[in-house]
Amino acid sequence: MTNDEYRDIRSRYREDTQLDSRLAAELRQIASRLVRFGGLPSSYAPYRVWNKEAEEEVFQSWYAGRLVNSGQLQALLDRAATIQAFRRLGERSLRQHVLNQRERSQVQNLYSRTAELLRDDAEFAAFVEAARPQDIWWGLAVWQDPPQFGGGDNDLFAAAWSLGEFEIIRYRADAKKLAPVLAAAELKRFVVGLLDAVTALLTLSLFARVFEQRFDLGAVQLDSFDVEGPEVAADEAPDPLELEQTALAIIAELNRRQAEVLLGTGAEETMDAMAARLECSVGTIVNEQRRIGSIIERHAETDDQRGTLLRKVLDLLHEGGERP
Amino acid sequence: MTWTNCPSFAELLAADADLSDELRAHIASCRRCQALKRHLSPTEVESAVEPLEKESQRRELGPEPGLGSVYAVRGPRSDEYLLAALVDWDGEEAVVVPLSDEVRNATDWDLLLEPELLGYRAMAEVWNHGTVLVEQLSEKIAELGERAAALEALYAAALDGDELATTLPVGPRILSEIDPRNTFQEQEGERAAVYWQPANQLAGVRSVFELVRVQRDELDIAPEELGAVEPGALEQLEAGKLDIGNQVPVAALAELLKRLQVAASRRLEQLIAAAVVATYREPLETRMALPRRRRGMRKPAQTVDRERFAADYARKVVEEMEQ
Most-buried pick from A103, A230, B255, B279 (CB within 10 A)? Predict the structure, then answer.
C-alpha cells in the first residue's frame, strides 16, 4: 500500500461502513509477518506451536475483536500519519493483544485461587457470611470488628494501584500446552496488601472487579470455581530455540535508547557515563532501566529465567557490534 | 543522538534499496534493529482476509477550532500524530490536552471519554497539557461536545491547584510513589514533549538572531558546518548586525532554519519580518543621501515599504521552508 492510498483510506475510515480490503490485507500481513518471522515466540501461540490455524486464530481475535469491534483500528489510524507508522503501531498492538489474551484467559483461574486462598489460609477470616460465596466479607484474621468496605470503585482501585507492581500470573516454558503458573506468594502479597490498604472487609466480587481493572484481565464469571490446586513455577531451563525467540520478542519491544541502556548496564557502565553517551539525564536512564525490567519481567517465569533471558537478549544485541 | 522511532518488521525485512536514507541510517546505528534484522528471514506472508462490516461514525465537524475540538497534532520529525483536545488558543498557539486509549492507566487527572466520541474508549490527560503552534493542528477529528465543559473544569482545576469536583468522570487517584501509573505518566510525558518543542523553541527567544544562536548551540553545530550561510555572515546574523532582507537570499535563510530544525510557522514568520525591519539598510541612504542633503532635500519616510518588504521576505522564507 502506498502512502497516498493509506491517507485516502484513513480519511474515509470513520464514515465507511465496511473495512477497505487493502487495509484488511495490510493488517493480515502485519500479523503474518510478526508470527512467521519470529516476532512472537511459539510459547505465545495457542497450544505453543505457530501453524496456519494458530496464526488465523490469533489474527481473528485481534482483527475482529480488538481492532474492529472495540474501535482500536480507528485509534491506530488516528495516530499513524503514514503507512510506515501504521505498520509499526499495528505490530505493537498485536504484541500487546497476544500478551493480554493469554493473561485474560486466566482470570477465572485467578479468581478461584483467590477464593481458595481466603478460605484455606489462616491469615484470613470470613467476618460476614452470605448465601453466595462471592458475597462473603473477608478480612485479616487478626482484625477486631472491622467495617465492610463502603467506598466507591475508584477508592478501591486507587488502593490496588498503590501497592505497586505484581506478577500474579506466569507461564511454564516446558508445558505442552499453554499453562499458567500462579505466583502464589505474589497473589497473597496482593490480597493482604489490598485489605491493609482499605482497612476494611472485601468480598470476592470486589476482588474480581479489582482484577479486572488493575490487571486488565477482563470480567470474571462469579459463580464459576476452578478447584485445581496451585501450581509451582517451573525452574527448568527453556528450550534454546524458545529462549532465542523470547529474547527476540523482548528486543522487538525495546526502543533504540532502551537497547543502548541495556547494553550499557550489562557492561557495568556508570550512570553518568551512560547519560553522557546517550545525551540524556541520569533520571532518564533510571526510567529506561525500569521499563526494560518490566518488559523482561513480563516474558520471564522465574528469577532464574529472567537472568537467562537477560543474558540472551544481551548476547543478541552484542552480535556484530562493539560493547559500550 | 536523535531517538527516531524504530521501524516495523515490514521495513526491517525490506531490501536496503527500498529504504529511505533516513531509515537506512537509523538501522545502521540502532542495535535493536540490527539484532532483529540479523535474525529475521523472509518467507511468504498471508494477505487473504475477508473485510468486515463496521459502524459508520459520520459526523459534521465545523471548520473552526473550539473548546474540546480534537485534533491530530503534527510533531517535528515524527510520522505519528498526537491526538489532543483544545483547551485554549489564539492565532499562533494552542494549549492542548493529549488523549490516550490506555484508559486502564487513568488517574483522577484524566478525563474519561465514552467510545461514542472518538470511536473507542479514551482519556484526556489533563496533567499532561502543553502548547503547540497552530500550524501543528493537522486535522480536526472530533468534538467532545458536552464533555468539553468537564475538560475545561478539570483543566482549570489543574491550573489553579483546586480540589477536583467529585462528579467528573475520572480514574482512581494515585496514592503512592510505587503506583505503576507513575511510570505510564513518565512515558506519556516523554511522548508528548516532542510535540511541544516547536512552540517552546519560539517561546524562549525574542528574535531570529537569538533563535539561530540558541538552536546552533543546542544542536552543537559549528558555523562552518552550516553550508547555507558563510561563517562570517552567520556571526553577524547572530549578533543582529546583518541586513537579512538584502544580504541573505530567501532560500539560504530557509535552508539555515531547516538545518537548525526550526519548524515553519506564523510566529516564525513574524520573528523573521521583525528581524528584517530591524536590520534593514536602505541602499539609497548610503548611496544617495549625501547628494540629496547637499541639495537640501530629505528622503521621504520608507517605513511602510520597509515593512511590506520585510513581510514579503518573511512569507517567502516560510513558504520555502514548507516545500
Answer: B279
